[in-house]
């Protein structure tokens, strides 16, 4: 049997061990919390003394994992003929912390990848641009000109403007994949991606004059992506109205002077 002294010794030893374990556990928890804190801060973009970054939207990669440059398309074909100058809007993203004062980022034109001409197809804009206080996203605005762009939907002339983000006093380039953006400018109404999804609903072949009429019927027809503007159960009445319009109001192809009908062009 243990003596009273041995029992007290065991109890003291147990207390010391528990105290050591408690101290070790506190140190462990402190280190773990520090690691998690640093990790969380890095996730939300803390720069730890480095400048914050800005970047353009990154395009999805192809199946071959080659880097795709994001593209913004501005078409004067979607606006009235009376408008000879308009603004292309490009989103600029922040990588880092919002700030309580305006800051400035720098853009340049990558001339060796650009076919648009300054002063002819667009107004000079390279240099510093404001990134608004308290924002995670801001907008780069580029004035584009219509006068020297062909309106031919047969030739389909397009001008390319390659824009590059560069470091400034306030910002670095956030991610290399978002350094460049391609602005494509044209003056024709190219076939929207959704057009062929309505083939079995009676829309017929594509022609820009037909699309203009549909846009006059309903604003949703202004969409250009793959998403269908209207439900297939609804569009048939608009296509019927389009047919009646073309049958009764002579509408002509501006390039060939052929009359546009629902199912064909005629001389």
Brief synopsis:
Helix content is 25%, strand content 25%. The chain is α+β, with helices and mostly antiparallel strands.
State the order of secondary-structure elements, H for helix, E for strand: HEEEEEEEEEHHEE
- Helix content estimate: 25-40%
Q: How many domains, as an integer?
A: 3
Give the overall shape, derived from the CA principal axes. Answer: elongated
What is the terminal separation in angstroms? 119 Å
**Got a strand count?**
11
How much is the average pLDDT? 85
CATH superfamily of the largest domain: hypothetical protein (bacova_03559)
Which band does the percent of strand residues land in?
A: 15-25%
Radius of gyration in whole Å, from Cα? 31 Å
CATH topology of the largest domain: Immunoglobulin-like
What's the architecture of the largest domain in CATH terms?
Answer: Sandwich
Question: Biggest sheet, strands in spatial order?
Answer: 2-9-7-4-5
Count of separate DSSP helical elements: 3
Would you mind describing this structure in some detail?
By secondary structure, this protein is an alpha+beta fold. It has three domains: 1-43; 52-186, Immunoglobulin-like; 195-266, no CATH class. The chain contains three helices and eleven strands; from the N terminus they run αβββββββββααββ. Strands 2-9-7-4-5 form a five-stranded mixed beta sheet, with no helix packed on it. A hairpin with a 4-residue loop joins β10 and β11 (265-266). α2 (208-217) crosses α3. The model is unreliable at 1-12 and 31-49 (pLDDT under 50).
């Amino acid at each position: 049997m243990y003596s009273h002294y041995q029992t007290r010794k065991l109890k003291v030893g147990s207390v010391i061990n528990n105290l050591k374990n408690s101290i070790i556990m506190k140190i462990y928890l402190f280190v773990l919390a520090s690691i998690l804190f640093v990790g969380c801060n890095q996730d939300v973009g803390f720069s730890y003394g480095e400048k914050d970054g800005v970047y353009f939207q990154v395009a999805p990669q192809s199946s071959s994992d080659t880097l795709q440059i994001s593209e913004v398309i501005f078409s004067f074909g979607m606006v009235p003929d009376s408008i000879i100058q308009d603004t292309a809007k490009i989103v600029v993203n922040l990588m880092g912390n919002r700030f309580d004062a305006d800051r400035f980022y720098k853009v340049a034109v990558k001339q060796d990848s650009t076919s648009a001409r300054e002063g002819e197809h667009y107004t000079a804009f390279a240099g510093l641009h404001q990134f608004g206080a308290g924002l995670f996203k801001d907008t780069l605005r580029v004035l584009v000109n219509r006068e020297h762009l062909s309106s031919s939907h047969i030739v389909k002339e397009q001008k390319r403007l390659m824009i590059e983000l560069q470091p400034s006093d306030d910002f670095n380039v956030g991610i290399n994949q978002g350094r460049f953006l391609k602005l494509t400018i044209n003056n024709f109404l190219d076939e929207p991606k959704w057009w062929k999804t309505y083939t079995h609903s009676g829309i017929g072949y594509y022609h820009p004059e037909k699309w203009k009429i549909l846009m006059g019927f309903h604003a949703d027809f202004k969409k250009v992506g793959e998403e269908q503007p209207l439900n297939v159960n609804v569009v048939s009445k608009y296509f019927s109205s389009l047919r009646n319009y073309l049958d009764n109001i002579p509408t002509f192809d501006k390039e060939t002077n052929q009359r546009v009908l629902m199912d064909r062009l005629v001389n």
